[in-house]
Amino acid sequence: MGLNRFGILKTSLLDYPGRLAAVLFTYGCDLRCPWCHNPGLVRGGTPQDFWPRSQVLEFLQRRKNLLGGVVVTGGEPFYHQDLELFLEEVHSMGYALKLDTNGTYPRRLASLPSGLVDLVAMDLKCAPSRYHLQGVPGMAPKIVEAVSHIQERFPQHLFRTTWVPGLNTVDEIHEMAQVLGPGENLWLTGFRPGKTLDPRWTTARSPTVDELDNVRLRFEQEGIHVDMQ
């Protein structure tokens, strides 16, 4: 699928740590996480308010003296075969690049040219053995491989987990920590109800403060440094 249109957030102070950035949203994803808050980016046609690729590049060219970085997120950016070409176009303007991924395309992640992407952020949604809960079977080996590639090839990286009561359990923390390895950092946030891919999760509850704190403690007991978001 060609990467021809993007959703755009013109400026953000939250999505690229330490930088004022534009955020570009790609359409399409190979997972079907029931609690996904961006169902319009997962299925259906490309949203009408997405900008053409040429318009996005023109905007970035005009703003390159004001913005410190560009975030490419999804959906899942690697869903598109020409992602690398687009990243090279943005990189050539002098932007720092942050790439968000769900980790389901480890070989393409590993094949990115050195220095093209400055920061990679991966969502570790649950223990790899439970990834069938994200709507697609057979993903566990890809997730483990993606974590390894990120740690080996991208010195600047982030791993993030959204804790979803009813899907995530403390029993899976040991496996998640083993995949990450001792000393790794994890951004932990709680699920918030709202528009979701599966309507049954629209009114699901958020984790309590005590629940999240217990999750944090369990990860830290496994040697993972947790930053609560």
Would you summarize the structure shown here?
With 229 residues, this protein is α/β, with parallel strands linked by helices. It has one domain: Aldolase class I (TIM Barrel), CATH 3.20.20. The protein has six helices and nine strands; from the N terminus they run E-E-E-H-E-H-E-H-E-H-E-H-E-H-E.
Helices and strands in order:
Layout (H helix, E strand, L loop, with lengths): L4 E8 L8 E5 L25 E2 H11 L5 E5 L9 H9 L4 E6 L4 H5 L8 E5 L16 H14 L3 E7 L9 H8 L4 E6 L18 H13 L3 E4 L1
Parallel strand pairs: 2-4, 4-5, 5-6, 6-7, 7-8, 8-9
Antiparallel strand pairs: 1-2, 1-3
CATH second-level architecture: Alpha-Beta Barrel
Write down how many β-strands occur, each being a DSSP E stretch of 2 or more residues. 9
DSSP summary: helix tally: 6
> What is the number of domains?
1
Query: What is the class in the CATH system?
Result: Alpha Beta
CATH-defined superfamily: Aldolase class I
Structural class assignment:
alpha/beta
Strand content: 15-25%
- What is the alpha-carbon Rg in Å? 17 Å
- Strand/helix succession: EEEHEHEHEHEHEHE
Termini gap = 33 Å
Tell me the helix content: 25-40%
> Mean pLDDT, nearest integer?
95
Oligomeric state as shown: single chain
Largest sheet: 9 strands, mixed
Poorly predicted sequence stretches spanning 5 or more consecutive residues: none
Strand order of the largest sheet: 3-1-2-4-5-6-7-8-9
Q: Quote the CATH topology.
A: TIM Barrel
